[in-house]
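Hi everyone, sorry if this is the wrong subforum. Our group has a chain we'd like a structural model of before ordering constructs, and none of us has done structure prediction before. Sequence below.
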Amino acid sequence: MKKQSPPKTGGNAPEDRKQRVVIPQWMTYAGLAAVAGGLYLMQKGSLLTPGTADWIWYLGAVLTVTGAVCWLTAGMNRAQLFEWTRGGLIALTLALAFRWAVAEPYRIPSGSMETTLHGDPGFGKGDRVWVNKWIYGIRVPFMNKRLYYGKAPERWDIVVFKTVEEDAVHKTLVKRIVGMPGERIQIRGGRVYANGEPLELPPGMPPDTFYTTPFEGAYGVKPADEYSLVPEGHYLLLGDNSAHSRDGRWFGWMPNEHLVGRVACIWWPPPRWRDFTGFSQTLWWRCSAGLIVLLLGLRLFIGRTCPLPAEKGARGASALVAFLSYGFRLPLTRFWLARWGRPVRGDLVLALVHTESGHEAAFVGRIAGMPGEKVSFQEGRLLVNGQPAALPDGVTGTACTSSHPEAVYGRSRGAEYSQVPDGHYFILSPEPDTGDEAPADSRVFGWVPENGVLGRVLWRWWPLGRLGRI
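Answer:
Right subforum, don't worry. Here is the predicted structure as tokens:
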């Protein structure tokens, strides 16, 4: 559908439009350029020697985020920018809270845990693991203290921790717990002895794993109590690739408070996927994974939820949209694989349109004008081909008119603003027009193409007191 600029409907229309726009549209291109530059700096920074020029990576991250914000908000008015900012801050807060207290992804930077974990400092290389930060107890942000203590760490747990070495290049490392509190640890002949008894390697570790006794590393090597007796609340951490791992043999016993969390699994790359906890073999995991797959399939192929306009006092209500009402669409596209119905006047639908700023906007409204019909408004009523057209649920009055200068469709006598093109619909929102903001429906967005009608709104599921078919 070819977009045309709406006609001026009043002497102050251009000035009113300028006042409503907060972020100019040219920021779209500036934002894309900033994202490209930021990604380049992040890649360049990740390839440098760790600790030599970290500011390049952080500068790239800031530039990428700033560019993305400019690109996403370009052309928004004040109300849209407020809603977008509020939603973004809520999502960011939840993401940061999850990362702080529950789980966090971590990249393996070196080969100290080969062959269990593959490490590579290159961009996009090396294993990516999920770290369970909840299991040992939540830590105070930016401090090596705990708000509370959870499950006690166990021998052979693979853990991410904050090193005790102040001059270390990598401040966050990954190793395996070998020595437990109160044990006397000695490494002899390639094996680890706890209280004089040799330790049996856990399943998953190569049977020929050989622990070295470097001259420079004293802990777990020298027999003196200072270097062999693990203090209470501390652990001896060793790398699986013993000959190429700077671990507890050098920096000593690791306090519990320095343990960030337990490595749960390798999640990337997919061929390297591995569960270290056995959780994927439990009934709870299988049921949870099955439910997630089911919900994802329903969301892609069957339907979704959407907020309802303030119709009959139902502000804050939500409903279910059926994608299969008019046919079967290829998920995440507007291409129909099969059609078995068409929208009719009065259907409450979820529609998707392209705005003048280049973004997509979704809104809920009633089919008011069919292809080929001429629509107009008179005294708060919708006229179709010059005759009154009744719509359900009282979509009349302020919902069928608007004095806002941007609501030009249905008000101008020109055919491009009153004649519904073939393959398009005129859709009205039931929400009353206050006049302060442009109505979010076809009066502003224009004709909605047939492939922009995502599905029919069928069931109200919230609030529970108003549960039922619409």
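For your construct planning: The chain has nine helices and 24 strands. The longest strand covers residues 259-268.
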